[in-house]
Design brief:
By secondary structure, the chain is mainly alpha-helical. It contains two helices and no strands.
Length: 93
């Protein structure tokens, strides 16, 4: 029994060390990726000033109309989905 307990404790210790090493490796990997993202953002910030174009402002009437149309389409699709699910529920006993 002592021999089995010894092997089990050694296996758990080795597994724990493996998890610890993997966690440290992943943290360094994540740090490297964050550094690369920061470098890319810095480069894109410098390049954005060369080809930046202004987006024309949208009038509030146009944005209200677009929002109303979107809301109406959303309501129609929700009602159609609700009706479809009710029909499916009635078909299956």
């Amino acid at each position: 029994m002592d021999l089995a307990q010894m092997f089990l404790s050694e296996a758990v210790a080795i597994f724990g060390y493996g998890l610890l090493i993997t966690a440290v490796y992943k943290i360094f990997q994540l740090g490297k990726e964050v550094r690369e993202i920061k470098d890319l953002l810095k480069k894109s910030g410098r390049n954005a000033s060369h080809g930046a174009t202004a987006i024309p402002p949208v009038s509030s009437a146009e944005s209200d109309a677009a929002a109303d149309e979107y809301a109406a389409n959303l309501m129609r699709s929700l009602q159609a989905e609700s009706a479809h699910s009710k029909n499916e529920a009635q078909k299956t006993p």
